[in-house]
Design a protein that fits this description.
eight-stranded mixed sheet; alpha/beta; about 325 residues; globular
């Protein structure tokens, strides 16, 4: 698999930002999703958006776990849905809690190591769909997916044929430091916090006393936000404990299902020197680390460009593992 950024998209930041703006370019009509609400074992719910129409019996199904503050309307989800529609492949986006447009009920949200949630969702898809299931994790969702694959070990194959993690921050400490500095801090961190803080405050209104509202509003980076909100709500001591225990990089040799890890080496969020090397992964893990692409970018063609490169790469990978 090869990717070379077009001449008009130099640099990781431009490749990241332009791709995000291309999310509404389709091959024809925009994808249509059908929403289902699944009750969770702890009395909460997750919302699942199925590409319409649902897949036929025996057809492959792609299940996507989105990135931080993502959803089925994210550019990468729409690009993959468009590709799946043209291929006759089923496609569904499983929203992490609170990301579907409606606040979830429980005193929790989602996090980068949410592998138990991933496992429950994939088991349900496998029970509902009579055909091969393939899982895709984007950014945060990619790290969580790989943590599930690591924890599941040889049992992962009961739910999926293969998995792919796209631009996953497999070393959360390295990525957290990178996004908290310079241009990243001024642009991307502010963008994320603009949606994360109001959702956290809504959660506090639901569950008074859950955290310190003043401290949360004073948070200026994801480290501080995670220290006040994400870590304590999900059983971690603090940000450092969360980032260490939730990171997938140290456990990649434990994966026992075919796994593709896609990471551009100019990703603004993920330092290239933090990416796993071939000797750090097991025989089931394939690394694709092109020099260009940005963070979930990979736009191609002449202006205004298109986003078909990523779904085509995923399709080739999954086809290799159909049986």
């Amino acid at each position: 698999m090869n990717y070379l950024a077009p001449w008009w998209l130099p640099g990781g930041n431009l490749q990241t930002i332009v791709a995000a703006k291309l999310g509404r370019t389709y091959s024809g009509e925009p994808p249509v999703f059908l929403r289902e609400r699944w009750d969770t074992p702890d009395g909460d719910f997750v919302d699942v958006d199925w590409l319409a129409p649902k897949p036929f019996i025996g057809a492959p199904l792609w299940v996507m776990f989105h990135g931080l503050e993502g959803s089925s309307s994210s550019h990468y989800a729409l690009a993959c849905a468009d590709y799946a529609r043209r291929q006759g492949t089923g496609f569904a986006v499983a929203h992490f809690r609170g990301c579907s447009g409606e606040l979830n009920r429980a005193p929790r949200a989602y996090h980068s190591g949410d592998y138990e949630e991933i496992g429950w969702i994939l088991q349900r898809f496998a029970s509902l769909h009579n055909g091969p299931v393939y899982a895709i994790g984007i950014s945060l969702g990619g790290n969580a997916l790989m943590r599930w694959a690591e924890e599941a070990g040889s049992s992962a194959g009961a739910s999926v044929r293969a998995v792919a993690a796209v631009c996953a921050p497999l070393d959360l400490a390295a990525s957290g430091k990178a996004i908290g500095q310079g241009f990243n801090r001024q642009v991307y961190t502010r963008m994320f916090l603009r949606s994360m803080k109001p959702k956290a405050l809504a959660k506090l209104k639901q569950h008074p006393g859950l955290f310190d509202a003043q401290a949360l509003m004073a948070a200026q980076d994801l480290y501080a936000f995670d220290n006040i909100f994400t870590a304590p709500l999900h059983g971690f001591r603090d940000t450092e404990d969360y980032w260490k225990r939730a990171s997938a990089k140290a456990h990649l040799a434990a994966v026992r299902v075919p796994a593709l890890l896609i990471n551009a080496r100019n990703d603004p969020f993920i330092p290239a020197d933090s990416l796993p090397a071939a000797h750090e992964v097991g025989q089931y893990v394939h690394l694709w680390q092109p020099e260009h692409g940005g963070h979930v970018g990979f736009a191609a063609g002449m202006p205004p460009g298109h986003l078909r490169t990523l779904p085509q790469a995923l399709g080739r990978w999954f086809d290799q593992h159909a049986r």
